[in-house]
Amino acid sequence: MNAEAQATVSFQVANRAATHLGRKLYSTTPPALAELIANSYDAYARRCYVVLDNGQDHIVVADDGVGMDIAALNDRYAMVGREKEPEPAPEGFSPRDPMGRKGIGKLASFSLGDEYEVYTRTSPEDKWTHFRVLYSDFVTSDLKYDVEADECELPEYLSDFADFEHGFISVIRGLRRDRNKNTIESLKTQLSRRFYIKSASDGFELLLNGAPLDLSRNAYYGNLEHVTYVGFTREEISDLLGNDEKAELEELDASSAREGMAASVADLVDERGLRGWVGTVEKPKQLSAGGNSANIIVYINKKIADEDVLRDRPNATMAGQYIVGEFMADYLGSESEDPITSSRQGLDHSDLEVARLVDLIAGMRSVVIAKWDSSRATGAIDRLPAWASENESYRKWMDGLNPTQRKLHNGLLKTLSVKMDQEAQDDSETKALLNSFISVVESNAIFEMADTILDYAGKSQEELLVSVAGLLGKVSASEDLKQAAIVQERLKAIQTLEELMDDPSTVEKAFENHLAKNPWLINPYWNQSPRTQEEVKVVTQEFNRLYQGKDGDYRKTFIDICIYIAEEPYPIIVELKRNALTPYSRVSFNRIKDQVSDYRKAVIQGLPLGSSRPPQKKRDPCLLHLPRGHRLCRRRAWHSA
Fold first, then answer.
1. pLDDT tier at 614 (50, 70, 90 boundaries)?
2. Which pLDDT belongs to residue 613?
3. Secondary element (H or E) of residue 214
4. C-beta of residue 524 within 8 angstroms of C-beta of residue 517
5. Domain 8-213 sits in which CATH superfamily?
């Protein structure tokens, strides 16, 4: 440090500014770090390093930018809240538009920790200028806060940056948030998302814990299905998104999209240089991974200015979960007095220029939603599992739908495809929904045809007979589809039962659950009653209780299977026995008789007080005995009795 240079850095700041402009503006780690990184970019750094290891008690943000001497620290760095002046471009650099505006980004350090140290120099001949800032002192100072500065070599833990000929290093201590592996992984995505920098052309590289981050693309680019864009040429948008022709790219047709959009495009896009796109991804989870979200982002001078520009215009349609977008509105950085809200959380929608931008983006979103609705409805069949989408009968049935039926069917399939995108669906659930859709469509067609028959005025007898024949054909086709679905479902159940029997590791509970779900496997004439699982559970709990035996003692009895069937008023109890001849599983007349008696005693004991015997209706609760030759016990494991 030269003799005439000052040895003090004097911050000029209003009381409590560190609280309001530091901690309260940046409530999470990514935006706070982004402010410090933006300062490195504004200082024409080629490299910016962020070190955030779990085992360390500090965070380091180091760059090889132009650095500052004592005079620059006092004249520019320490002046909080004053309009930031662009740094002159060093030799070999193209001018960079500053990301920061008010010179408050440095206070983001206080969002991360309770104190920070600075090491900076402007040439390799100089030592590093060092000073330390405490949050506790900063917040109690009024208008002026002086810190002592000294000259030094870099400490050993910063030796990786000792070869910087010039630069700026911030070390934040007294960290306020815990860190773990997930925190660091999320930061990779979050920091990349906060900048819009084509690294090669900008000559700027960001490294997190030594690993370079790609600031030229976001994680969801590879999952885009449709993109509507403005301000780009097709080659530019394709290059930006790294498009391999997977996504459908389409320039906005503003003249036909929405009233007033053409004027906005002419002004904001053609005259002011707005560029941007709105697109849809294949599945919503592709936007939630890594901290991304289904929002439309606005950048100003390559730094994020609003993470959700349409936050005041929520979209409740299914398509809203699939939409993402990015806009570069650099003109706002020079034409609006300050387009960012006082909370620094997004653009100020009361600003006229911002409001016009929001209107245009909302209009583009509407265009994309319409395209998504159309493509999802017409292409929903291809998103179904192969057993459905390649089913010849199903395809043939769809080919026979009229336009009204097809529209209804496509709308129902679109709902199913969204449900499948959000959560895993098993085949049985999907089949049930598809069968319901078919019934709805067929019922709709039947009602339409019935209306035409009832409206017989002016029709000949022959025309009426043709209409009736068509109606009966529709009813028959509907029943055929239902029967085909039932047969397919039952064949699958038989196959599952055979797999259970062939597997020596199958446990008894697996048989119990499968047979309870498909009682026709026990008796072909049985169909499961539409009773709720809760009703079956209540009955089972009632039977699985203590009852008084012959010896006066209380014993417990347990039910293997308890089912309601449509053909009987009472629940049916099924007992499973192992095929091995053990004392427990040996089946004899007396053993079956005793077990039937035990069940009946349990039933009687569970009746309301005052009842001495069960009501005599169609049948008492019974125990079904299937002989050894029954199909369930021929091949292996279980004797159904």
1. very low
2. 43
3. none
4. no
5. Histidine kinase-like ATPase, C-terminal domain (3.30.565.10)
